[in-house]
Amino acid sequence: MTGHHPTPTADASAHDDAAADAADHGVLRARALAALLRARERTSLLTGCVDEAELTAQHSPLMSPLVWDLAHIGNQEEQWLLRAVGGHAAMRPEIDPLYDAFEHPRSARPSLPLLPPVEARRYAAEVRGRALDLLEGTAFTGGPLTDAGFAFGMIAQHEQQHDETMLITHQLRKGPAALTAPDPAPVVGDPGPAEVLVPAGEFTMGTSTEPWALDNERPAHRSWTEAFHLDTAPVTNGAYLRFLESGGYEDARWWTPEGWAYVQAQRITAPLFWRHEGGRWLRRRFGVTEEVPPQEPVLHVSWYEADAYARWAGRRLPTETEWEKAARHDPVTGRSTRYPWGDEDPTEEHANLGQRHLRPAPAGSYPKGQSALGVRQLIGDVWEWTASDFAPYPGFAAFPYREYSQVFFGPEYKVLRGGSFAVDAVACRGTFRNWDYPIRRQIFSGFRTARDAHPDEAVA
Fold it and tell me: Measuring CA to CA, which of 36, 85, 168, 457 is 20 to 30 A from 269?
């Protein structure tokens, strides 16, 4: 809950605190409304740019039909806002099992009796109308779901996460482009050094104050890193091509045993969607074939590929703790900020977010978004693989359900940080944690590398 707590002996102070609480809640209510509307506008774009046959088709066994995502978004909103917060009776209880992500694997969802597109749109719209009425009348106090409007922020994040999933499906679908967007601007000026030194020392990792942070981001705790060097920008296509063309995919030295077995079994020789033709490396991007742009961060690589490149380059992937320290720690103040550039919400000058573009910006972009240590593009552009397994923080408590994070903790999943061009700002911050299997390549994943510092280098 935001704001101050009044003392029983200070009537004037209590009045002022109540007014401050009301103002804080008004800001959060407006933020929740904007986030929900922005998410639904994007959902409508992603599901409205293709015909009904495309909506109901399964474009890859890795992904659900787009129409499943659409109704699932509405069903989750109904369950958590209308039922859990509003106390309303279920609108369509018979469809709950159809849209339970844990009950049916993605590959099996096309065979379910799903709501057809017209009905799915109608259902999602009716839920949304009731949810907006509920938002207007709900006090942002009284319990963990309603404090600071958490449930509304959670649902906005959930919808944006499925929007990113649907954008992945658009990348996997065959046929002409259904989506368009302008390209990011080229880099202007000197992007600075290739790497920076991150001094040894403690910093505050995670959060206990971000109102809509999810359970795996909590609680805030002190963490230590030794000094290390980190790339100031993600690894580019041009740099990755040097690894590829030097025989990196044919040399077991650079791969973990599991990674080597994986690329051999799957006959992987380049990032997903790349092909070599006529002496050039080409890629398919949202229905368009184009030459691989050398200055753009590499995209659609698995953890195994990222790790192999780093070994080949004589470096390593940063740990999750190192990544967050580089993104949030201000060595001058000792504070951990919400974002690399400070505490203010992202703007178009800070990061490439929200599907504003359909590709990463060139390496070295967004100087106003760099961290206090001089690292750029830590937010947006590409999800960045880290060396770390997905694990709970000390003091972790599952909320509001175990299946959001807790069931995924373990060495099977690797952590990704920072978000991509496909992530909305509501679902991306310096503490946000993503995770996936190390084989995953259809996601908008890239990476940057690190190396240990020498013992005599600077210490905070």
Answer: 168
